[in-house]
Every structure is written in structure tokens, then in C-alpha cells.
């Protein structure tokens, strides 16, 4: 029974893989519902802080190359004659989305149990998280500049192959 449910779940995940925008839209709704719940019930800040740290960890994996040039030596081309190697993420977009969405669902479920509502002064957690985020992103951006890689595809030149029916001898 559990195996059949797992296969069905994996089937739905596989079907959703090419639909990036709708997947992220559903996740955005889940994030808004979670944020609204935490705001309205005025608690569970330690859960939210832990969720933020986990998301920061996912984000670093998403922005990092699979082969770290600091550890394995330079892998990106350094001159025009060097071989081009595309940017491959340590954490692919689909796994990033899936882990993020699962984390918000788990955190949402945890807000229904008062044992997880540990009293904390939330502004301290917020300031600590912002400092951690800024320092981590600063280090990541320095790494990106040092090894000259950009983990995003927008703004990059895209090359298309030869289109069908474009001046071949069989065209009439």
C-alpha cells in the first residue's frame, strides 16, 4: 500500500517537473498561508527561524556549482581556447523547489502543536537571521566573482540550432 502511494506521488511530481511557474505559484501560496498563520497567531517564531536557516542552506546549494573550483581546481574556462562548461548546480531547481515546499508544509503543521511555541523575543531572532543572511550571501557572491560563474540563465546569450526549412537543398 505504502509503495503504491509513493509511486503515485512520484508520478505527480514527475508530471509537475516541466511546469516551473505553476509549481512556484503553488509554493508562493503555501508561503503566504504560513506567513499569515504565524502573523495571526503571534507565535512559533523559533520554528520560523529554523525554517529560515534551512531555506538559507537550500539557497546556498542552489547558487553553488556542483564542482567547487576551490576544492577541485578551476573548471571554468579561463581563456578563449578553453572548453566551455555549463553551470551545473549542486542543488537543482526542482529539488530546491520540492525541499522548500516540504519545509513550509512541515513548519505549517508544527504550528498546530503548542509544544513548539517556545517563547522568544522575535526581534533578536530576526536581527540574527538578517546578519547571518548578509554574511552568507556576501561570502557566496565573493565566491561567484572569484571563480567567475553566474548561476542564473537570464541575460545570457542563447544559441539556437539550425531551424528546419531554413535554406537547405530540400526546401522549395
Automatic annotation (TrEMBL):
<keyword id="KW-0472">Membrane</keyword>
<comment type="function">
    <text>Involved in the retrieval of endoplasmic reticulum membrane proteins from the early Golgi compartment.</text>
</comment>
<keyword id="KW-0812">Transmembrane</keyword>
<dbReference type="GO" id="GO:0000139">
    <property type="term" value="C:Golgi membrane"/>
</dbReference>
<dbReference type="GO" id="GO:0006890">
    <property type="term" value="P:retrograde vesicle-mediated transport, Golgi to endoplasmic reticulum"/>
</dbReference>
<feature type="transmembrane region" description="Helical">
    <location>
        <begin position="46"/>
        <end position="63"/>
    </location>
</feature>
<dbReference type="InterPro" id="IPR004932">
    <property type="entry name" value="Rer1"/>
</dbReference>
<dbReference type="GO" id="GO:0006621">
    <property type="term" value="P:protein retention in ER lumen"/>
</dbReference>
<dbReference type="GO" id="GO:0005783">
    <property type="term" value="C:endoplasmic reticulum"/>
</dbReference>
<comment type="similarity">
    <text>Belongs to the RER1 family.</text>
</comment>
<keyword id="KW-1133">Transmembrane helix</keyword>
<feature type="transmembrane region" description="Helical">
    <location>
        <begin position="120"/>
        <end position="137"/>
    </location>
</feature>
<protein>
    <recommendedName>
        <fullName>Protein RER1</fullName>
    </recommendedName>
</protein>
<dbReference type="Pfam" id="PF03248">
    <property type="entry name" value="Rer1"/>
</dbReference>
Amino acid at each position: 500500500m505504502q509503495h503504491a502511494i509513493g509511486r503515485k506521488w512520484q508520478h505527480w511530481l514527475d508530471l509537475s517537473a516541466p511546469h516551473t511557474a505553476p509549481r512556484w505559484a503553488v509554493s508562493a501560496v503555501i508561503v503566504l498561508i504560513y506567513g499569515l498563520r504565524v502573523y495571526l497567531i503571534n507565535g512559533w517564531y523559533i520554528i520560523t527561524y529554523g525554517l529560515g536557516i534551512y531555506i538559507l542552506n537550500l539557497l546556498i546549494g542552489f547558487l553553488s556549482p556542483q564542482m567547487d573550483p576551490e576544492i577541485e581546481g578551476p573548471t571554468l574556462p579561463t581563456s578563449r581556447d578553453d572548453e566551455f562548461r555549463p553551470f551545473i548546480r549542486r542543488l537543482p531547481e526542482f529539488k530546491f523547489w520540492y525541499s522548500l515546499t516540504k519545509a513550509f508544509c512541515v513548519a505549517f503543521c508544527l504550528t498546530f502543536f503548542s509544544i513548539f511555541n517556545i517563547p522568544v523575543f522575535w526581534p533578536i531572532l530576526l536581527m540574527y537571521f538578517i546578519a547571518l543572511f548578509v554574511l552568507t550571501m556576501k561570502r557566496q557572491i565573493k565566491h561567484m566573482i572569484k571563480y567567475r560563474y553566474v548561476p542564473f540563465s537570464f541575460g545570457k546569450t542563447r544559441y539556437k540550432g539550425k531551424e528546419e526549412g531554413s535554406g537547405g537543398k530540400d526546401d522549395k
